Fold Dabb family protein.
Amino acid sequence: MKKLTRRSFLGNSTFLSFAGMLGALPLMGSMHKKPKGDFVHHVYFWLNNPDSEEDKAKLIEGLNTLKAIKEIRLARIGVPASTNRDVIERGYAVSWLLFFDNLEQQEVYQKHPIHLKFVENYSHLWSKVIVYDSVDM
């Protein structure tokens, strides 16, 4: 077995560290790349009958039909979490979080027949809707 000197150990360690960093450079560069034009559409629904689990289930059923719209990149249905701080709004019944590649795809979604049918069939369930639209910076 070859005896390892301090000098050769340090030299090998430095080389391996440098080589490892070179391999990680593409990954580090991609961490700073901006996603192309993300558009976020977040909708909060307050029900006419806030205590009705049946109405909530019906609304969630309707939201699930919207997932068929191909312009949606990612869709999530949520309910208020159990967190409790002064800044948290927990009065809504259901939230609908959507990600699109750009504003144009979100506009297609708004006019899509499935979306229009959803509003027609389920709008009687809610008393209030708040929408937060945002774009990636």
Summary: Strands lie at 39-47, 74-78, 94-100, 126-135. The mean pLDDT is 86. The domain at 39-135 is CATH 3.30.70.100 (Alpha-Beta Plaits). The longest strand covers residues 126-135.
